[in-house]
Amino acid sequence: MKRKMYSMILSGILVLALSACGGDSGNKKEQTQEQTQNSEQTQNPEQTDARTGQVADELIVLTGSDASTFDPHFCTDSATEIFNKNIFNNLVRFNENMEIEPDLAKEWSISEDQLTWTFKLEEGVKFHDGTDFNAEAVKTSFERVLDESLGSPRRSVLAAITKIEAVDENTVNISTDVPCGALLQQLCHPVAAIISPKSLEEYGEEISTHPVGTGAFQFVEWKTGEELVLERNVDYFKGAPAVEKVYFRVVPEDATRALLLQSGQADVALRLPVTETDRLESDPNVTIQKGDTVMTMYVALNNSKGVLRDEKVRQAMNYAVDKDVIVKDILGGMATVSDSPISPYTWGYDSSMKYECDVEKAKELLAEAGYPDGIELELWTPVGRYLMDTQVSENLQAQWEKAGIHVNIRQWEFQALMSEVKNGEFDMVLLGWSPSTGDADQGLYPVFHSTQFPPNSNRAFYNNPEVDALLDSAKTEVDETARRKMYAKAEKTIMEDAAWTFLYYPKQALSYRSNIVGIEMLPTEHIMLEKVTKQ
């Protein structure tokens, strides 16, 4: 219904011709001291309204894919995290430079033995249901994530935590068995969002469609596949937003999102391809904001199925692809070619190796594996989730064909794809991985450790005991240099094993009307709207 409406709008426009334990101890040491100086920026309830002088009626944000769940403890895709991050708060958060800032915690300190973190909480904060935010709410949320019987797919992010203690109404202690210098990074992850305890009791399993947080915007309505409506939290502890309602509308077609934005029928468009952003850059009414990300794009090769169980076949898949062609000709330079399973903007990245394009070598490897006449596979791909995902898939298909790798493409709506991928019945699938802690533990463990097979995120069913041991050891290693060496060795091994077809690290482009000010675009792909104003 909604898609038809947007098609009609488009026609009208055309007619009108328009982590880990350890961490970076050098940086984290400064961040673990009591940070009262940072908390001042979150203390002015009148900040937003005083700055703008008025509240806009609406902000219309166009997205290419729908939400999966509004339960942040069970969310596994960064597309949905954009919605959830505007509904919920964490104790701490990243800013646009991936620096850690106060959120619901106004200051924190760490014990002398490095095992207990004490967080002083903001006072007087209310959940959207009117109940009080306090230390017990933090305890309830974290214990829910850590409860193995509930099966949070992101439990590993907080697994270092062994005890949460509500010391008093506004103080919480978080303990670990071993020093965990990266705990603050882990607490920035969306899975560490604080949910109203009352809502957990009231809605039970239905919490996924009844989100109640403390965030700048609160949930109003969700029409699956069409629209999510949020309204401003007038009691938001950082200052009431200057937008009355936010409408996230699902418009899978890139050209339609671009035209709706250019015509003024939308305020923001997410993930527009280079073909559209290049065209829009000449429009004075549109702003294109570009930035780097922690994401890596890849094709998960099902290491447990058919011909892809053979390392030589997987290596051939990599040698057959000229990633520079994709980056330059399809993405317009909005990416860099992968030389590691994680991006340079993720702590612990090591430039391991590149699979240079060598079609003849790919053919030789296939022949050595027993397939001189080639192989046939199916590639699953989302539509509208990633930058130029359809064009990338078609280019991969054409490049693989030259090496005798015959590929059929099956296109999916993103959330349907993510649901089906959990069953593991695929040859290969085009995906992106964005470690929201900015740390190698989250960049590697969930997608390469053998305990993380689907329905978790090791969608390649990759299994290498040596890599498992390295990732396990790195979790509890305190020495930064030693930890980096472990990750470097793991990254090199993963590349050599060709667990994926390694593609590129995408940049992001956010497109919005030039009268929009205050959008925060994080390298984690999260778009924060609490400071947005319409001029």
UniProtKB/TrEMBL annotation:
Lineage: Bacteria, Bacillati, Bacillota, Clostridia, Lachnospirales
Family classification: Belongs to the bacterial solute-binding protein 5 family.
Annotated signal sequence range: 1-22
Region ranges (Disordered): 25-51
Gene3D superfamilies with a match to the protein in the record: Dipeptide-binding Protein, Domain 1, Dipeptide-binding Protein, Domain 3, Periplasmic binding protein-like II
Residue stretches making up the Solute-binding protein family domain: 99-452
Low complexity bias (residue ranges): 33-47
Protein name: Glutathione ABC transporter substrate-binding protein
InterPro entries: Peptide/Ni-bd (IPR030678), SBP_5 (IPR039424), SBP_5_dom (IPR000914)
Keywords annotated in UniProt: Signal, Transport
